[in-house]
Amino acid sequence: MIRLENVSKVYGRDTVAVRDASFEIAKGEFVFLVGPSGSGKSTLLRLMNRQERPERGDVWVAGRELNTLPDAKVPYLRRNIGNVFQDYKLLPTRTVFENVAFALEVIGQPKHVIRQQVPAILELVGLEGKEDRFPDQLSGGEQQRVSIARAFVNRPLILLGDEPTGNLDPATGEGIMRLLDRINATGTTVVMATHDQRVVNMMRRRVIQLDRGVIVRDQTRGVYE
Amino acid sequence: MWSRLAYAFREMWASFQRNVTLTAAAVVTSAVSLLLVGSTFLIQRGFENLLARWKGDVQMIVFVRAGAPPEQVGFIEETLRGQSAVIDTSQLRYLDQAESYAEAQRVFAGDPTTLSLLRPELIPSQFKVVPLTEQAALVRSLAQDFRSLPGVEAVALAEDEFEIIAKLSGFIRTVTITMSLVLLLVAVGLIWNTIRTAMFARRREIEVMKLVGATNWFIRVPFMLEGLLQGLIGGALACGGLWGLNQAWSSGVAGFKPGTGISALVVPDGYLYGVMGLLLGVGMIAGAIGSAIAASRFLDV
Q: Which of A56, A174, B280, B295 could be stapled to A8 by a disulfide with Cβ–Cβ 3.0 to 4.6 Å?
């Protein structure tokens, strides 16, 4: 599903974010990218949804090589990738329903599809009955659930999470992890960057550890260390 | 398809309402510049009507009496062609009564009394003369000679009538076209700035749109429609202004004594509507260009 071959990414002249990274993630896997701040976790995620291009190496996602993917095709790639962020990136002037519907609306889904899919996904993430609330009327955990609902509403092949539990207390973070686990169980590949030791140790899934842009460990059923 | 269109118009309208002050500034500037563009066209058309008789370096017109027999017309032409030392005979043109009537319709466009009296069969036909010499005195004495020819009703000289106006027309055209172009550029700039501000205010939304797979065109179209609408409203205001100006001018000119030539400065409605259509078109294009440039930025997420 995702394959990186000798990928390097440099910001500016000499800030190396990722150095010679190679790994493969199979369909349906759940993978943690771990490491301290600035180790290159977020850069790897940005390379996977073509927000960044590598200086060297190839990035394959869902059967496409992203370096040679024309700009006009990037939106169609991204429809196969859901994104969840630490700061949720919800639109404050839209309700819960509208925030989730937005993801379907901008890819041109008709109204009847939106009316059918949004309530179903809100139920899946445990937000039924809160459709008409605005983001500032929700707790942090609820906001992250809206963000996950938006990322998953069009059933993407891959879900990328950049520190999705970073702003949440441990109990709420656990709830979010259980939700991501359920999404993974539907066959969606989940890649999550985190330095939340507790959730990594709780889940016991594959761990790719980075240190200053270099992959120093790739372990199935790993812990944080 | 419909849902995308509905989305584009809904977003355009929401954004339009969000930036009222900036939008108003852009609309007013485009209206003023377009009004100036329109006025330039009308002023030029007025001068063209006034100078229609003197187009193509014509300096002298020999009017032939209505009903003059063909021999007399032939004799006048022969006499004119005989003056090849002072007259450019290759440019000598004869306008028969039908052609002279059509020309008179433009010259007297703003003078309904004269227009109603015009009859194709009563109108003099005419020879348009382009002299070779620059010497006014020579042209004048030539005109004096032609006046005595049989069948000639009158001889008119450009020098007497419209030379100053022709020069004035050229000057006014240069000034108004320059000013309107500068203002049009300012309007495009203001529309660009309005759209840029609107996009900056919504950068988070645009980032989310890009991440969930919206195409650049999907994001761009509502902003382009917004710019287009600003240009269209500016154009519509300019049309209203131009129509009002033309009405005021036409009724003002109607008060002038017939035969002063000022009546020719009136622009008939057909032409005015053409210019109004042009202003709407230019307004929309300017708006769309300004917003398209602005929308091309901010899309690199």
A: A56
Q: Does A51 touch chain B (CB under 8 A)?
A: yes
* CB < 8 Å to B213, chain A: 75-79, 106-107
Encode pLDDT of B106-155 as tens digits.
777 766 777 777 788 888 888 888 877 767 677 778 888 888 888 888 88
pLDDT digits (tens, 9 = 90+) for A100-147: 998 998 888 888 999 999 999 999 899 989 999 999 999 999 999 999
- The alpha-carbon gap from B208 to the nearest alpha carbon of chain A, in Å, equals 7
**What is the spatial distance between Cα B41 and Cα A129, in angstroms, rounded to a whole number?**
63
Q: Which residues of A touch B216 (CB under 8 A)?
A: 72, 75
Distance between CA A109 and CA A117 in Å, rounded? 10
Q: Last residue of a domain, which of B137, B160, B183?
A: B160
Examine the fold and report which residue of A155, A190, A208 is the final residue of a domain before the chain moves on.
A155
Predicted model pTM: 0.67
CA distance A181 to A176: 9
Phi then psi for B35, rounded to 5 degrees? -60, -40
Give the minimum alpha-carbon distance from A154 to chain B in angstroms, rounded to a whole number.
9
**Where in the sequence is the domain holding A101, given as residue range(s)?**
90-155
Q: Are A196 and A164 in contact (CB under 8 A)?
A: no
Residue B77, domain CATH = 3.30.70.3040
B34-54: per-residue pLDDT in tens? Answer: 888 888 888 878 777 776 666
Q: What is the ipTM of this complex?
A: 0.85
Q: How many Å lie between the alpha carbon of A161 and the closest alpha carbon of chain B?
A: 13
